[in-house]
Every structure is written in C-alpha cells, then in structure tokens.
Write a structure and sequence with these properties.
Blueprint (H helix, E strand, L loop, with lengths): L2 E9 L4 E9 L4 H8 L12 E3 L2 E3 L10 E4 L7 H15 L1
Parallel strand pairs: 1-5
Antiparallel strand pairs: 1-2, 3-4, 3-5
C-alpha cells in the first residue's frame, strides 16, 4: 500500500500549529488528527474538522496533499458581531 502526505492544522488564538505527516493510503481524518498529537483526546463531537475549509466527518478518507483542519469554537456569533458593527456605524454616521 502506498503512503500519502498530509498536513494537520490546529489554529489557536495566538498561533497555528501545523504537523506534516506520512500516513498509509486509506487513512482517515481521525487517523491524521490522532497521529498528529495536536489533540491528545480527540473527540469529533467537540472539535469539528474539515479539509481545505470544507467541513468533513472524521471518517473521511484522505488523499495525498490534503490539509486537515481542526476547528475551534467561535468566540462570537458572526451574525451578532455584524449587527453590533451596523449599530455602531449608524450611531457614528
């Protein structure tokens, strides 16, 4: 069986942690996150994951060159943030 090269990225508030891995062909997103060591207790229910910005399931089979991304919870709801900016702009204008 051939090997594939993938990256696993875990963004933190002040840095992005990146690991490059060589895995067996047929490996999944879950395999990559576990092998990266970035999340010692990986729970896909708590940490959504994706490949190149598109949400995927932990059972998604990887392809050579994929970048697995571990998403963290949002600090603020984007819709609420937009509303606050709009109100602030109206008051200033």
């Amino acid at each position: 069986m051939a090997d594939i090269r993938v990256q696993v990225c875990h963004p933190l508030p002040h840095e992005a942690r990146l690991r490059e891995l060589v895995l067996a062909e047929g490996s999944t997103v879950r395999d990559a996150v576990t092998a990266s060591g970035l999340l010692p207790r990986f729970n896909p229910d708590d940490c959504p994951v994706g490949i190149f910005g598109k949400k995927k399931t932990p059972d998604t089979v990887l392809r050579d060159g994929d970048r697995v991304e571990i998403y963290r919870p949002l600090v603020a709801d984007p819709k609420d943030a937009r509303r606050r900016r709009a109100v602030k702009k109206d008051r200033a204008g």
